[in-house]
Amino acid sequence: MNSELFQFSTITVLLLMVAFYGGTYLLSTRLKQNDGDADGFMVANQRIGLGMGAASMTATWIWAASFYAAATSGYTYGVSGPLHYGFWGALMILFIYPFGRRFRELAPNAHTLGELIHARHGASSQLILALSNLLGSIISLMVNLTAAGALVSVLSPLSFQAGIVIAGLGVLSYTLYSGFRASVFTDFAQLIAMMAIAVVIIPAVLFAMGGPAVMVDNLSNLTAEQANIFSREAFLHQGAPYFVAVLAYAIGNQTISQRLFAVDESHIKPTFITATISYGAIVIGLGMIGLMALTLGVEPINGNMNNLIPQMVSSYLPPFFIGLFFILVIGSLSSTADSDLSALSAIMMADVYGKNIAKNNADPKKMLLIGRMTMIVATVLGIILASFSLDILVMLVFVGALWGAVVFPVIASCFWDRVTNKAFTWAVLSALAVFCLVRFDLLPMTGVLAIGVELLASIGAGVVGGLMVFGFLGKRLGVAAFFIAAVVVAWIGVGTLREYTVLLSSLTAYGVSTLVCTVISLASNERFDFDLIQERVVEYNKPAADELKGETVAAR
Amino acid sequence: MQTIILGSYILVWPAITLGMLGLISYAVVRDYREARRTNADMV
């Protein structure tokens, strides 16, 4: 095993990046241009087919950290580790599908989930969602650019900052003009490259290191827990917190909802199923490289788990494969970064300008200008923040909590006519406050208080289970699943959950937001007419309904 | 036997990826032909 990673020359790594971003840029120029098409810039033609839709969904969901984290999970938790990263992540793509159909049914012309919530509740709820989306996309952009800097600096003499700048400008170059359309169009090519490379690299590493027989011979390197496919440790430390976190990610992230509003409505189901399987297979497969490293007793260079995959590829395969690995990571981080830029521009165009400044009388050309300016500012901000290598854990935790807190209020608002703006807003704010108290150990987790928080978390677990069943099997079974999951988790978790702070705080956020939202909604006599949403959410390229009415009257 | 099980457990993922790669490519080609036929944009 090499103690140092393979190094490309500066010229080689520059050529690889120029080839990647140059090729992607040329691909984006094949799109037909329409200067005033604000809707196309945000959600393409809203008739994206199965192949492009599934490819874009998969490429967006896979970011650079997916490979590193899956391999780390395999290395840390053994046989079940990659499953506890990839399987739950994949399931979350599937999870959003039934709710996505409802979103499309309520607001077929929407560009963001925030617009739907604005039409349902008004500005405060929408801006909570828009703020969480903005923060999430900026963090994601920064993390992906950081990954580019780290990869370039580890595999070549180029600096960390050089990698960040090249990746940032590269992504901006092909996304700036056509926005979301370019993002989707190039996602397809990027995903095909990623899949083809994953198909080659996984077996290549396995057989280069001696094949499955060598792994079996070295299984003694694994602890009993690591060798167990049903490892409790792996589930509680990796699977369960991730499952809860990505559930929030699926609802709270604009990159996913943007695709939801863009794919052909008749293809939503197969698109989501295809993306689920594709994501799971690629990520779990690459996570297996971490398991291979564990069985062979490989120590990650400098103790950095992110070095595991490059280290294994570098040790067992020729430089050509390291080049493929380089493209794999650059492809994954670029496809997510371009989606972040598209998401950020759509939020500023639709949620901020369209709904709160222009009040549905938006000028499409001004919208496009705002969208492109947003992309430029976001890229510069992402490059600066990534260059400082900031510790983003607190911000990441905060955004995760915000997303967890909005899941129930968003879903309930789309199915239950009694949910009010007040219920939505207070549910999110109170859940966030309780989350912070638990997550940052601001309260002593002992005695009655700890039991109370664990019971709230059990309700949160019931909400997660209940929502999943509700989405696929309807209200009755959903309610039954809520009670069963809550009781089971309370039975097992009271006295134990306090040991798992990340899981406890995430579940508590779900539990508190659900309770507050439900209680305030039940106390209100308001009823909402869901048909109003379709009237209120407009296409920006076309005049609004009231404008058309005015024109008709004038003509008469 | 253990070798076959472990090997299959690892290799099944690239195999599924290959299958999905074929499916997505096929779907895109079909969408492309449809778009050309109707003179519409793919995205």
Total number of strands of chain B: 0
Number of helices of chain A: 24
Oligomer: heterodimer
What do we call the CATH topology of the largest domain in chain A?
Sodium/glucose cotransporter
* Biggest sheet record of chain B: none
Which chain pair shows the most residues in contact? A-B, 43 and 29 residues
Helix and strand run of chain B = H
Structural class of chain B: mainly alpha
Describe the structure.
The complex is a heterodimer of chains A (556) and B (43). The longest helix of chain A has 39 residues. Chain A starts with 9 loop residues before the first helix and ends with a helix. Chain A folds into 2 domains: 342 residues, Sodium/glucose cotransporter; 131 residues, no CATH class. Chain A is globular. In chain A, helix 8 packs antiparallel against helix 17 and helix 19 packs antiparallel against helix 22. Helix content of chain A is 78%, strand content 0%. Chain A is mainly alpha-helical and 556 residues long. Chain B is an all-alpha fold and 43 residues long. Chain B has one domain. Chain B contains 1 helix and no strands. At the A-B interface, helix 3, helix 9, helix 10 and helix 14 of A face helix 1 of B. Chain B: Keywords: Membrane, Transmembrane, Transmembrane helix.
